[in-house]
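Example record used in the benchmark description.
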Amino acid sequence: MPVVQELCDRTIIINKGTVVVDEKVENLLNLFQTKAYSIKLGERLNSRQKEELLLTFPLSTYTENSLQAIVDVNLERSEDIYKLFDIFKMEATLVESIDRTTIDFEQVFLQIVKGEKQYAIV
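Model output (structure tokens):
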């Protein structure tokens, strides 16, 4: 997917034999990029929190080391931030930082193919 992002101007995505996207790569990236965040936590999530995170935000990624964790998530709607923080609040998980991130074409592709993102390009 990085090759598509770097070399292609336009892409067509076919899912189950149906064209679901015929659009400029740049437009797709701009559409999905607006609400992508990387959140550094002061501690690891427990199993219940991890399960809820993946159920609520199936395309999120969660990585941890012995002391902390990082959640990378793309929020579809601004109010989804409250759902995310409710997951952290379950166990009073400390949030150390929140950074806006850039989304790559692979993440866009997965959201489109999984049908989890309804979009309209104007």
